[in-house]
Specification:
disordered N terminus; single chain; eight-stranded parallel beta sheet; globular
Length: 1171
């Protein structure tokens, strides 16, 4: 540990040395005029609305994953001056119009501190000038400068008047700033950096989130800014080596973001820890998943948006459990960056993108459907899967190869028995319009003679132990070494390997297991004290705990660069499991190893949305669920929703049923075809949305509240989302939608439409009034499209009879678009009344603007003018010409809409009735996706989920917001057996519910179950959550002899009752099992001592209770039992979990002599146990 600590402080020591040198040389520092080591050199002022480039925009980047290494994407406000100029519709989205930030005389310029005539804010917490109505004591630390006041200028005004600020401050004079806090403006309008102190700023580690890290260190010129001082100011506190940062937002604020996190979209009440973790089978309460985004996106009561980034790559607690309070805790010191408030959520994300960058423009084929499985074991199987898509006319662009293509799971190799000629396979796939994506994990098998391992060893690229030796841990190939991607030498080595690998016809690469995941360890990763020899600008030599969360980013960056090295004329596609905020610059992602359950189907929407709100727009779930068996109904619901998400891939693991679109029968196959046809019809729109994401950082898929951020009813909607102006209303539950197509919509005009494919099992789609969306024909893959294909415009007029929309087109791959080789078309529609006023007049559709060097293709333009519920008026012309469409009268439209509604309602009812019968035929399919639903027990502060049909197991115990069980339906969780062997009788049998008393009746929940375990034996279980003990539950289990024959003397075989709860560990290395033994000795078992099972017997047994305690959070669970009923206690440390087992004596039972164990679980806080 000492060696590790010395390594970890080198950067801080070096910065202190530099600071001392500057202090002796610069009289301003000696005089106390500078609060940090930042340059005071003035650069050119920002133009536009203030989201302009801060100083240094043209400087070379740090490790960003950008295509040319030194390339920096133009800042949002400079795009209009480039060849990629955006139309006015996008200027509004990106807050580039001055009018969006300035409202003439309706707002007042934010005041600077008294005496600051330069227009630049002070570098310490601002002291309000006299016009703010009082001394420093008038403002609360960690709270907005004023009480929250709705602006008279409306939600589009981002500044508060001096009067409003004065009134707000005057109302609360007992609060004060912490004048130790250092802050300064960076990047652009309303972006501020805060540090705990000047010293903390000097000692902060390098920025690993920004596209151009220098911009975090350089003070912005504020001469053109409307706001020169921050609106929200954090409160800092140092506790030992931890820094706590707290923001207090106004009552009624909503929280989002936090990256990849399970559970609902709105994050109030949740806490996560940024620590990339192999989290197979996670649930909505799992606190650490595969990626880390220490970022909170908040929407204020009036609809404005405000964001906070804790700019640390180390483990960080993001605590949103208290309403309107944002709390970060991580190793000190680190800065926090605030963005806004801005008038719209889009403006906030554009400002964030100015810091962390945007996605690279993906190849268009990557927007098609992807088919994957762990694994298609042979090249023959891969091609058969691809060919079946073509035979069945189901659109698909990509097939994936998981690790079984490798020789012994060794990266960059092929198993010659089953993949004898990968280049020939790639050629065959290309010939039928398929791309192939191949997996590359980071771990390299330790094996002399394996050229990849030998070359890595020769170049000394491996992560090291504290003793300077290459670290080796267990992973798929066995003993494995891990490349140190934080080192440029290693990244260059990897790039060359990828370049050579791509010569096999590889179209894209999948980086998996790159948290990095390590088997047979409690932490599921390598030791924190391992050593990385990182580049100096990244932090230099540091322990693994410093680089852990960015490891996946650097692997993805090296992989991207390797693919680009292989072919500079093709856009690389990389998918990564692990990542850190900013990782979107190199790779897309997915939501990890989810389950085939309705819960995970429902979570896939908010998880993808929050990734988008955290800067990663190219994401989606494993459609159908990775683990477990989907049911037909679940699968079609999932593919219907997933086909409309940014990344659409079906994926499942070994041991599950086949989950290709044709695997569930003919009716499901038809619906899958319809769902994917929808995606391919919408590809022109998707591609345009990806262009916007690439240029500005606006997500492809956004929450419903983007339509109206001030509407509080939209803030928690997880069942719908937006694709630009298209609203998708989903049904991620087993319930039937039948004829009901009424959904709660945002205010304004929303026209429902479909593609003559309306079906109650598929999402509903609506187009916002005022929008035009381009669509195309159904194609089997992106390569089948031609420039002469008909473009169909969906048009919904607003209340003024107008609409506008854009279509982006280029070569679908390559980088010619950067030189202007593209076509960006703005279409507009305007309704004109008829001369006699007797009809609906005409709607004129035309090209308003065109940009780019592409010549407009000679093609047909088809227009669908939506005039009511799935009712439309159509017209056609040559693209580029003006089209005039005659509109029916209002009475004629009303009649058409009424007739269509009646016909479609009846058809949906008939279809749903038929499909319900189809799905009923498959209810016998069990597994994680079974149609049976868990029984919920809820009383006091406890919520339990029980599934009687699989061993009567308890799959969830949630106390307040903390989940205590690990596992899933089929294994793990809380299990009971009837023998010493693992998963012996009683584990998986179907149990019957004997009694279920509801809390609503008497304030407590009681559930009695029993299952036949053979040999005349019954395993019975009673679960009680009592009303007088809100934090305690009791489980009484017994094995009874019900029908044991007389020939056995009335006694059963030898049995033992074994109780096995699998406890989930959020902090495995900081978790203890503590108890006092019968002999009075105190015992502490530690999770950091490695895997293994410990059996405790005799006087060493706990004296009736033992406790699992997380010393990081103080959360604890005490298990109490009767010593007379328990012969053995067993502790087994597993990856990110531990079992604390109770074993009865082993003996026969009769009707009169059952085996019984009755025990309690109490959930509480324990602040006394320390590591």
């Amino acid at each position: 540990m000492k060696a590790s600590r010395r390594v970890g402080t080198r950067w801080a020591a070096r910065k202190r040395e530099l600071r001392r040198a500057r202090t002796s040389e610069d009289p301003r520092v000696a005089a106390g005029e500078m609060s940090s080591n930042l340059s005071l050199q003035q650069h050119g002022s920002c133009s536009g609305a203030g989201l302009g480039p801060g100083p240094g925009t043209g400087a070379a980047t740090g490790p960003s994953g950008s295509r040319s290494g030194a390339f920096i994407r133009p800042a949002p406000e400079t795009m209009l001056a480039s060849s990629h100029a955006l139309p006015s519709s996008l200027r509004l989205l990106s807050s580039l119009d001055r009018a969006l930030l300035r409202r003439g005389g309706s707002v007042v310029r934010a005041c600077c501190a008294a005496g600051d005539s330069s227009g630049e804010p002070p570098l310490r917490a601002p002291t309000p000038p006299p016009c703010f109505g009082g001394p420093v004591a008038g403002t609360r630390s960690g709270q907005r400068v004023s009480e929250y006041i709705a602006r008279s200028a409306g939600p589009s005004s981002i500044l508060t008047s001096v009067t409003a600020v004065s009134e707000g401050v005057g109302a609360d004079r007992d609060m004060e700033f912490d004048d130790k806090t250092a802050w300064m403006p960076i990047l652009g309008e309303s972006v501020f950096r805060f540090d705990e102190s000047d010293v903390a700023r000097q000692d902060a580690m390098p920025c690993l989130s920004f596209e151009n890290p220098k911009l975090r260190e350089e003070r912005a010129d504020t001469s053109n800014f409307e706001r020169k001082t921050p609106v929200f100011v954090p409160k800092f506190q140092i506790n030992g080596d931890q820094q706590e940062v707290v923001f207090q937002l106004p009552s009624g604020s909503s929280f989002y973001g936090t990256g990849e996190a399970g559970g609902p979209m709105e994050r109030t009440g949740k806490r996560i820890y940024t620590w990339n973790t192999d989290a197979w089978g996670y649930n909505q309460n799992t606190t650490s998943l595969y990626q880390s985004h220490p970022w909170v996106f908040s929407v204020l009561p009036n609809g404005e948006s405000f964001g906070v980034l804790a700019d640390t790559c180390q483990r960080c607690e993001v605590d949103l459990r208290k309403e309107c309070i944002i709390r970060f805790v991580s190793a000190a010191p680190y800065p926090v960056i605030t963005f806004g408030p801005y008038p719209s959520p889009e403006a906030l994300l554009i400002a964030l993108a100015h810091a962390i960058g945007t996605i690279q423009m993906p190849p268009k084929w990557a927007l098609g459907y992807h088919q994957c499985r762990w694994s298609y074991e042979t090249a023959e199987k891969v091609f058969k899967i691809a060919s079946t898509f073509r035979e069945k006319n189901i659109p698909c662009d990509v097939v994936w190869m998981d690790i079984d293509y490798m020789d012994g799971f060794k990266c960059f190799t092929f198993d010659k028995e089953v993949f004898p000629d990968p280049k020939a396979l790639s050629d065959d796939l290309h010939n039928i319009g398929f791309k192939g994506i191949w997996m590359l994990d980071p771990g390299i098998k330790v094996e002399k003679g394996y050229d990849v391992y030998d070359s890595g060893t020769e170049l000394d690229v491996w992560i090291q132990t504290p003793h300077g030796k290459p670290f080796a841990g267990e992973c798929w190939p066995g003993l494995t070494s891990f490349p140190d991607f934080t080192n440029k030498k290693t990244r260059d080595w990897w790039k060359e390997l990828v370049k050579k690998f791509a010569a096999n016809g590889v179209d894209g690469i999948w980086n998996d297991m790159n948290e990095p995941a390590v088997f047979k360890t409690v932490s599921k990763t390598m030791p924190d004290v391992n050593i990385h020899r990182g580049d100096e600008e990244l932090g230099g030599v540091q322990p693994h705990k410093y680089y852990h969360n960015v490891y996946g980013n650097f692997q993805a960056q090296a992989t991207y660069d390797g693919m680009l090295l292989a072919n500079k004329d093709r856009r690389p596609f990389v998918l990564t499991r692990a990542g850190f905020i900013g990782g979107q610059r190199s790779a897309a992602t997915w939501t990890g190893d989810n389950l085939a359950t309705w819960e995970h189907l429902g979570m896939s929407i908010p998880m993808t949305l929050n990734l988008g709100l955290s800067g990663q727009p190219f994401a989606g779930p494993d459609i159908g669920g990775f683990a477990g068996d989907a049911t037909p109904k679940m699968f079609i619901r999932w593919i219907g929703i997933g086909a409309l998400m940014p990344f659409a891939r079906g994926h499942s693991e070994k041991g599950t049923i086949d989950q290709e679109p044709w695997s569930f029968g003919l009716e499901v196959e038809k619906l899958c075809r319809v769902a994917l046809n929808r995606r391919y019809r919408l590809l022109p729109h998707f591609y345009t949305l990806f262009y916007q994401a690439h240029k500005m950082g606006v997500p492809v898929m956004t929450p419903l509240f983007f339509a109206d951020p001030s509407d509080l009813s939209l803030r928690k909607r997880d069942d719908a989302f937006l694709l630009g102006p298209i609203l998708v209303s989903a049904c991620p539950t087993p319930k039937s939608r039948r004829e009901n197509v009424e959904v709660a919509l945002p205010k304004g005009i929303w026209q429902r439409f479909h593609f003559e494919d309306d079906n109650p099992e598929l999402p509903l789609m609506f187009l916002k009034g005022g929008a035009i969306v381009p669509t195309g024909p159904v194609i089997q893959h992106v390569g089948a499209a031609t420039v002469s294909d008909t473009i169909t415009l969906l048009i919904a007029l607003d209340d003024k009879g107008r609409a506008e929309g854009i279509l982006y087109e280029d070569d679908a791959d390559g980088f010619g678009f950067e030189a202007g080789n593209y076509l960006l078309t703005t279409y507009e529609a305007q309704q004109f009344p008829s001369e006699n006023g007797n009809d609906g007049g005409d709607v004129v559709v035309r090209v308003a603007r065109s940009e780019g060097d592409w010549k407009r293709p000679y093609r047909k333009l088809h227009v669908r003018l939506l005039v009511g519920n799935t009712t439309q008026v159509e017209g056609e012309c040559k693209d580029g010409e003006e089209l005039r469409i005659k509109v029916p009268t209002r009475a004629e439209i009303d009649e058409l809409v009424a007739n269509n509604y009646e016909i479609e309602t009846a058809e949906r009812e008939r279809t749903q009735t038929f499909l319900d019968e189809v799905f009923q035929e498959h209810e016998a399919v069990k597994g994680a996706g079974g149609v049976l639903s868990p029984i919920d027990l809820e009383a006091g502060n406890l919520v339990l989920k029980v599934i009687p049909w699989i061993g009567g197991r308890i799959i969830s115990i949630r106390h307040n917001s903390n989940e205590w069980l690990e596992g899933r339906f089929e294994s793990g969780c809380y299990e009971e057996y009837s023998g010493s062997e693992w998963r012996s009788s009683g584990c998986t049998e179907e149990y019957k519910v004997i009694r279920h008393s509801l809390a609503a009746l008497d304030g407590q929940e009681f559930l009695a179950m029993e299952g036949d375990i053979g040999g005349g034996l019954i395993l019975a279980r009673d679960i009680l959550v009592a009303k007088d003990s809100p934090d305690t539950m009791n489980i009484t289990s017994r094995i009874e002899a019900r029908t044991v024959g007389a020939g056995s003397g009335g006694y059963s075989r030898l049995i033992r009752l074994r109780i096995r709860p699998l406890i989930r560990l959020d902090h495995p290395l900081k978790t203890l099992v503590t108890y006092t033994a019968i002999d009075g000795k105190k015992h502490v078992l530690r999770g950091d001592e490695g895997f293994g099972e410990t059996t405790i017997s005799g006087p060493d047994r706990p004296n009736g209770e033992w406790t699992v305690v997380d010393t990081e959070t103080g959360l604890a669970m005490t298990n109490r039992f009767d010593l007379n009923q328990v012969e053995l206690c067993v502790v087994n440390w597993c990856p990110a979990s531990v079992t604390i087992e109770l074993w009865s004596e082993e003996r026969p039972v009769s009707k009169e002599t059952p085996i019984v164990i009755s025990h309690d679980f109490e959930f509480h806080n324990d602040t006394t146990s320390k590591l």
